[in-house]
User: Fold this.
Amino acid sequence: MIEILDLHKSFGPLEVLKGIDLRLEHGKVLVIIGPSGSGKTTLLRCFNLLETPDQGSLVLADVKMDFTAARKIPQKSILALRKKTGMVFQSYNLFPHMTALGNVMEGQVTVQKRSKAEARKRALELLSKVGLADKAESYPHQLSGGQQQRVAIARAMAVEPEVLLFDEPTSALDPELVGEVLKVIKALATEGMTMIIVTHEMKFAADVADTIILMDEGRILEQGTPQEVLEQPKSARARQFLNRLS
Ligand code: ADP
Assistant:
């Protein structure tokens, strides 16, 4: 249900993605690992067009796109794709002037045109799901980093995306707050939410992923099950990267 073929992206003279191919079935979890600067975040951001690829194609549910550097993607197509994706950023990016409840209601009212009552009901359900029913009226600055990130996950889920995209969701957190966020993501995986996750948490990656890709210098170096990629990597470079972590 998600497929990209021959995806390329450059920033000026720097080619950051050098031909990426991958497929992800509905309900599966893809984890992207690799050294810093290998293109993980750029690849993730291509899935909702926060970065526009220069070449290649993307299929996400019923949205299909072909990219060429010469052609601008129409705004309508960008919005169609964004409606299918929910993004969770490293730094939470909550609206600071809105409560947790307001944050989770916002997209439902503006993008999905739900009534406020309906949006509120769903927001409360989602806050409860991420363990924050009692924080609905709190503002972001009154919440810990782990709590803010859980609100961000509820917000991303609220618009019922086909896929959730996570960009290093725990790397801004104090170590003692990492577990509570990973637990929420793991629960979503168990429920069959389709997710693409960039992370440095290898134990978590092994636990949650159906497929792991290991990127290096803009290419996929290894791709397979957690066991294949983490325990039996084929390339010397992958072994080198994984050894540095352990
Ligand atoms: P990773 O997530 O694996 O650390 P990134 O996708 O963030 O890698 O970055 C890959 C490369 O692209 C890096 O060299 C980075 O400096 C560069 N890069 C990322 N975003 C931009 C940008 N907006 N403009 C210019 N260079 C960028």
